[in-house]
Design brief:
heterodimer, A: mainly alpha, B: seven-stranded parallel beta sheet, 10 helices, 9 strands, about 40% helix
């Protein structure tokens, strides 16, 4: 499994950015979602708040799990398949889109970079296993 | 899903809307068809459908567990002992891997006739696939009122993507599909559990 070194370096860089901005924006996300949950619960009752809480939990989980996947790709590349790399790259893209919509631009940029790195990683895997 | 046709196949094919792919004897054709050929080549990376793997080594239900794209090595990892040796030496399977990377984009508006079953398996995910002589869901078609028009065949060569182009193709094909498709979303959440 010979993945080009530059791609792995890009993946490491993107993952480091993702972790840094992820920790910073976690507080922001929690504050915003707590406020929104409070407001929605006030307006629409507990169901409205619960739906928003579930959505923001899914968003935070997607963001963090892409980091975990990138970590695994760096540490144990033999376990990573092209199909899963594509899947997680798309997940990172979704996280980037949601972050951009919620005006969290640094995190959106780092997620987009991680998506790009995982996509290049999938291509490298494809090239080496052909 | 490949549908095996019986009865008045030619009148069914002339009335059906493109795109479709048909495998069977050419005397059943009616109307304009693109006769698709494929170049030589073997590979160990692609996305053969379970039907193709079933056709080659009879292990379709193991291939169902894999998401496209996958490599021969990944397929070997999920096969049981007896089938693994068979798969390792199978030229048929390598051919299926190679042809699964056929580019379907230029073929989206055509009725296609193939005489190579691998091309039928490769195009089946992208368009309705009909066959005579390959078992699938059976369907008996009724005869139309008019006699079917005589066949016209245009020759064409299938373009096979390189592994990298294939990854591009799979990536851009359905970029936001995981959000719209609840089954894929659940699969994503299931993966989450394994990673965390």
């Amino acid at each position: 499994m010979a993945v080009k070194k530059s791609v792995v370096e890009l993946l490491k860089f993107a993952m480091a950015l993702e972790v840094a901005f992820g920790v910073v924006s976690l507080y922001w996300d929690l504050a915003v979602s707590a406020a929104a949950v409070y407001l929605l619960t006030y307006l629409f009752g507990p169901i409205g708040g619960a739906v928003f809480a579930a959505l923001s939990a899914a968003y935070i989980a997607i963001g963090y799990s892409t980091v975990f996947f990138a970590y695994r790709a760096i540490k144990r590349p033999e376990l990573v398949k092209p199909s899963t790399a594509i899947l997680w790259s798309k997940a990172a893209l979704i996280a980037a889109a949601v972050s951009a919509l919620s005006a969290n631009l640094p995190y959106a940029a780092s997620s987009a970079l991680l998506a790009l790195a995982l996509y290049l990683y999938a291509k490298e895997l494809a090239k080496s296993s052909a | 899903m490949i549908v095996e046709l019986g009865g008045c196949v030619s009148s069914f094919l002339s009335a059906a809307r493109p795109p479709l792919v048909f495998y069977g004897p050419p005397n059943l054709l009616a109307g304009r068809f693109l006769h698709l050929h494929a170049g030589e080549g073997l590979s160990e990376f692609g996305a053969p459908t379970p039907e193709a793997v079933e056709y080659c080594i009879g292990a379709g239900r193991y291939a169902e567990k894999l998401d496209p794209p996958y490599s021969l090595k990944e397929l070997l990892a999920v096969l049981p002992e007896g089938l693994r040796e068979k798969a390792e030496n199978s030229v048929c399977l390598r051919r299926a891997f190679y042809l699964s990377r056929v580019d379907p984009r230029p073929l989206r508006r055509a009725k296609i006739y193939v005489d190579d079953p691998f091309l039928l398996f490769a195009l089946e995910p992208y368009m309705p696939a009909y066959a005579v002589g390959i078992s699938g869901k059976r369907r008996n078609v009724k005869c139309g009122a008019d006699p079917p028009p005589p066949p016209q065949l245009a020759e064409a060569e299938a373009r096979v993507m390189t592994p990298e182009e294939f990854v591009d193709f799979l990536y851009t094909k359905d970029i936001f599909k995981p959000l719209l498709n609840p089954r894929l979303l659940l699969k994503l959440l299931w993966r989450l559990r394994r990673v965390l």
